[in-house]
Amino acid sequence: MSGAGHGMAARNLVEVRDLTVEFATEDGVVRAVDGVSFHIERGETLVVVGESGSGKSVTSLALMRLVESPPGRIASGEILLRGRDGAVRDLARLDNHEMRQLRGNDIAMIFQEPMTSLNPIYTIGDQIIEAIRLHQGKSGRAAFALGVDMLELLGIPEPRQRMRSYPHQMSGGMRQRAMIAMALSCHPALLIADEPTTALDVTIQAQIIELIKRLQSELGMAVIFITHNLGVAAEIADRIMVMYAGRVVEAGPARAIFHQPRMPYTIGLLNSVPRLGIDRAAQHELTAIPGNVPSPHHLPPGCAFHPRCAFFERGRCDSEIPRLEECAPGHAVRCLRWRAVAQSRGHEEGR
Amino acid sequence: MSETAPLLDVRGLKTWFDAGSGVFARGRSHVKAVDDVSFAIGAGEVLGLVGESGSGKTTVGRTILRLIDPTEGAIVFKGVDIARVPQSALRRYRREAQPIFQDPFASLNPRMRVEDIVAEPLIVHGIGSGRADRRARVVEILRLVGLSSEHMGRYPHEFSGGQRQRIGIARALAAGPEFIVADEPVSALDVSIQAQVVNLLHDLRRRLGLTLLFIAHDLAVVEYIADRIVVMYLGRIMESAPASELCRNPKHPYTEALLSAVPVPDPDRKGKRIVLQGDIPSPINPPSGCVFRTRCPYAIAECAARVPAPREVAPGHVKACIRDDIL
């Protein structure tokens, strides 16, 4: 495979094309991810926003080829990654051995709960050194020194002593830093962070977000950041991709998503979170999205959001699956009625 | 606040847990989960209790409900000190004060049908005459929380998170309580569902005249629903004030840092952010003096000397900080 292969744009690090991930369940096959396409440029941060069942975590696991099989499988699509060597590979088709070479080296991942992702019976140092030796073939001593450097880079006090600590001896925030240190020890070009601050307190969350931002600018890596928290998304995103029921429903630059949202679901999400320090009279009632997140076993026909949508049009939205359409440069929306949505918001956005 | 006595008056509350005594330890050590906490809630008021993990906010809620026994202090509910009532005589109080829990998956018995879950408090407290009457009451309560009689025969696993939380709220309301302690009632729910449940609690409070202690870590949600907010850190109250006053004009360094740490859904926000260094200290060995001083950007030597007494700095606005020259 050559660098020019697959027709991948030169500035892109990752291109996911029409990815579909299915799970076999007792009640039949469930499509957790349905025809998802997106790209990530070098050094940029893409935030994937969605609720439970949106497919955001499965998408990221598919990128790492960590979808457990069976019951899961990548049913179709391409996951193109430009490697360090400049070659473009389709991760969906690599064998396990090739994939292991890329994990850690080119792509690394951190998870929500560091306590369950770290091995409780090894010290933090053992685990970081293992990662470095495995991927970089360094000697024990060199790996230890690099580990200490990484902990220092992550603002962990007394890094030498900390290398000898066990996970349970550290606080949640420190464990998450140790996880990030491990993930970044081989300088991946892409970091996937799945709800990395959700289990943390807000003051610790603020520390970790600042840290990821700083590391990203220092190391020049791209980040896929998965979150359900729109505030966190606003803090860190260059671009935002909103998922609902396994599909991308809106994607665009962060400012466009927050200021000119075009998908009624995105608008609903933005209106359902209270804003801090805003006059109560100005936001008297939170506008909740009615209904529930649909079960993947019984997805509504047509647009999966239609039963909860204020812009629902009978006969169209419940029969036709909308395409992802460009509504502004770099801003795509999956809604048959996005023009009506734009019109109805005109006065609000004209401020 | 009104001139009349508050519905609930908590004074000098301490809830300490035994942390065991090691072979070499001198005396016993304690986790001071709640240490000298005082506040009052007026009838019909919503008080928000905010703090991070380890702040003691959940223990305050549980102690007030007497799910945990207090170590010291008074919990005066309608003139009676609940802290001194023996467990065996708490039945009347249990009818008047009810909990709503965080996890609607863990707090409902999976083997009970919705009707039986909601009817149980009626049976326990001897409310209603016979099965038919209780059933009518259950239907009424389910309607109140946005469910219907067709849900009665189903089991909790057949419901989504938001609907389960509605069942939990229905159970809490069944015995007709005046006072509800809701501990993180929306934090386990999806974003689009949180607003539904917050609006429901808001609406129920108005319609039923409920008094609510709303415990949560999400300041934006608490500001939205609460009349007043109390901020806790490491077992102690740092600041309390009317909700909008506290969020716009914080007087305690911890509240200021907490507010600035909340991510705001606006990519154009360019405020200065105070990132607190370090972690919350252990409640077994809290710092001397002000418990926040080890992370406080404004700490001075005097802060270690004594525990700052709460002081009223504006009407209804109380802070426990010795410095007046900072915020």
Could you please describe the fold and organization of this structure?
- The complex is a heterodimer of chains A (351) and B (327).
- Chain A is an alpha/beta fold.
- Chain A has 12 helices and 12 strands.
- In chain A, 33% of the residues lie in helices and 23% in strands.
- Chain A is globular, with a radius of gyration of 21 Å.
- The mean pLDDT of chain A is 89.
- Chain B has 327 residues and is an alpha/beta fold.
- The two termini of chain B are 25 Å apart.
- In chain B, 29% of the residues lie in helices and 22% in strands.
- Chains A and B meet through α7, α8, α9, α10 and α11 of A and α5, α6, α7, α8 and α9 of B.
What can be said about this structure in brief?
The complex is a heterodimer of chains A (351) and B (327). Chain A is of the alpha/beta class and 351 residues long. Chain A has helices spanning 56-63, 96-102, 114-117, 124-136, 140-153, 159-163, 172-184, 202-219, 230-236, 254-259, 264-272, 338-349; strands at 12-25, 28-41, 45-49, 72-82, 88-90, 107-110, 190-194, 222-227, 239-244, 247-253, 325-328, 331-333.
